[in-house]
């Protein structure tokens, strides 16, 4: 049998020590000969105490901020995505190593999540079930100090947010290799939900099974999109295995756990949830495989300083229609990130353009462009202005 690439390895990777802020360094890094192990551990303990004290101090200040806002109706009223984005950008700007930006952002996200939960944990609806990439996107954006609500469909996520049963929702909108998730775009044709954030998540697919042995596998379960993302790997290493498409990778995991000769393709986090071992991974054909998710809410938020605006523009099918949509943004110096057309829902031969533009709807150039666009469009709907994904 050919040697398998990137096979699962036993054991857990150790956590890298965190870099404390300047005021939390009780002892300067040593220069010269290496220090004795006992001395190093002593200094790490000292740094850990300083970090813990500073986190507690931050939590107290965060609690005071909540009190300063007065008595608000719900946890969602304390959450300010533009403020969090500004904090995380400063974390990235200050970072001089040795930890990567993504690691530091994740640490600070968890600190902010825990501090916010002092008021009340946010309720976050997402396209479930548990163990999906969408759940990973939820934790990347909100941290783990929340109440995660797995829901059965993208439509249900929109409905729970609109009804107020979920403070926010997270749904996939596009993948770098497979394109747009049309069911998400279609919901915006009728939904009143607003976009108040975005998450970009590197998608790593893993082969999971009950036995953990590739030689046992005779059939593989996965969502059709996951099969498409791992086509070359499966062709090389499991050419004879039956490929069975299911509604979600989580459903595939549920089926795979019932037999030693079955496997599923899913994210690594699904393994512990469904009692499966990692056989191999990542197994996706393209290492840059990324999915973009949208964070849904019920209101628009102020500018963060680096924002994106999503629009839904309805126009009649006529000569020069696309030019009329594009021209106002070019005239006002706004960069268009994405445009996609869909049949509208208000009449025959009417089309809806989904457009992403750099900038915030409160900024003068964007306001003027939207005003100019309204002269040509039958309807212009601001779906949301929100901070650009940081890492």
UniProtKB/TrEMBL annotation:
Region (Disordered): 1-34
Broad class of the protein's primary localization: cytoplasm
EC number(s) recorded for this UniProt protein: 4.2.1.51, 5.4.99.5
Site (Essential for prephenate dehydratase activity): 291
Catalytic activity field: prephenate + H(+) = 3-phenylpyruvate + CO2 + H2O; chorismate = prephenate
Ranges where the ACT domain occurs: 310-387
Ranges where the Chorismate mutase domain occurs: 31-123
Compartment(s): Cytoplasm
Coiled-coil ranges per UniProt: none
One Pfam family here: ACT
Key words, A-Z: Amino-acid biosynthesis, Aromatic amino acid biosynthesis, Cytoplasm, Isomerase, Lyase, Multifunctional enzyme, Phenylalanine biosynthesis
Gene Ontology cellular component annotations, sorted alphabetically: cytoplasm
PANTHER family per the UniProt record, alphabetical: PREPHENATE DEHYDRATASE P PROTEIN, PREPHENATE DEHYDRATASE-RELATED
The protein's name: Bifunctional chorismate mutase/prephenate dehydratase
């Amino acid at each position: 049998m050919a040697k398998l690439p990137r096979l699962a390895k036993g054991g857990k990777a150790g956590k890298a020590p965190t870099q404390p802020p300047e005021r939390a360094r009780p002892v300067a890094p040593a220069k010269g000969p290496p220090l004795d192990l006992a001395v190093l551990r002593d200094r790490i303990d000292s740094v850990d105490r300083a970090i813990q004290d500073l986190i507690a101090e931050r939590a107290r200040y965060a609690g005071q901020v909540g009190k300063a806002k007065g008595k608000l109706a719900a946890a969602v009223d304390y959450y300010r995505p533009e403020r969090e984005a500004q904090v995380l950008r400063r974390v990235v700007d200050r970072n001089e190593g040795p930890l990567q930006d993504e690691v530091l952002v994740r640490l600070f996200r968890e600190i902010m999540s825990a501090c916010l939960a002092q008021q009340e944990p946010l309720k976050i609806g997402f396209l479930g079930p548990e163990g999906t990439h969408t759940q990973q996107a939820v934790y990347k954006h909100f941290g783990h100090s929340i109440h995660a609500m797995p829901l059965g469909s993208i439509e249900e996520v929109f409905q729970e947010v609109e009804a107020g049963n979920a403070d926010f929702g997270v749904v996939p909108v596009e993948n770098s290799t497979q394109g747009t998730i049309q069911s998400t775009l279609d919901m915006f044709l009728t939904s009143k939900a607003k976009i108040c954030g975005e998450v970009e998540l590197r998608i790593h697919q893993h082969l999971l099974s009950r036995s953990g042995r590739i030689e046992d596998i005779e059939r593989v379960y996965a969502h059709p999109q996951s099969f498409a993302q791992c086509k070359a790997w499966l062709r090389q290493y499991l050419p004879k295995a039956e490929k069975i498409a299911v509604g979600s990778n989580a459903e595939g995991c549920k089926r795979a756990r019932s037999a030693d000769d079955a496997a599923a393709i899913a994210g690594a986090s699904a393994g512990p949830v469904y009692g499966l071992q990692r056989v191999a991974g990542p197994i996706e054909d393209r290492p840059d495989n990324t999915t973009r998710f949208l964070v849904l809410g019920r209101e628009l938020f102020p500018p963060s300083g680096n924002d994106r605006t999503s629009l839904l523009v309805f126009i009649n099918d006529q000569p020069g229609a696309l030019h009329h949509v594009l021209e106002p943004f070019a005239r006002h110096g706004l960069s268009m990130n994405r445009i996609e057309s869909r049949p509208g829902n208000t009449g025959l031969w009417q089309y809806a353009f989904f457009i992403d533009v750099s900038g915030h709807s409160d900024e003068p150039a964007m306001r003027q462009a939207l005003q100019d666009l309204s002269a040509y469009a039958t309807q212009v709907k601001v779906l949301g202005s929100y901070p650009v994904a940081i890492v």
